[in-house]
Amino acid sequence: MSFKQASGDPLDRDIYLVLEDFGARAGCAWRETDEADTDLETVVHLVPSGDYAYPVRIVAFNAIEGRSRDATSEVADVVVQRALNTDAEVSTKLQAFIALNSTMAFDLQLSLPLRVA
Known about the structure:
This protein is of the alpha+beta class. The chain has one domain. Helix content is 30%, strand content 19%. The protein has three helices and four strands. It has a four-stranded antiparallel sheet with strand order 2-1-3-4, covered by helices on one side. Strand 3 (55-62) and strand 4 (67-70) form a beta hairpin. The longest helix is centred in the last third of the chain and has 15 residues, at 72-86. The N and C termini lie far apart (83 Å).
């Protein structure tokens, strides 16, 4: 008897889950999320939008293929590339996530007020 799913199974894909730090009192927990919001594109959108305030680790897995991996740097790199491509504002929290996890250089140039002489 085979338990392998048909190739058209919507869950036969990489599923991304986020471990978030809720602070000293609550600690870290895997965020509860709708199945539809577990793809890379959604997670890459939710991290910079602030829906995940302090993401610590992002894991991608495919249960049908029996594999998992740490995808934290992958997500951080995509967030950096999109921020650079769109000149998006990068919050202090997001800068910390990028600094800890991205493999790409991300130099944020802050605009300084000009003095009138």
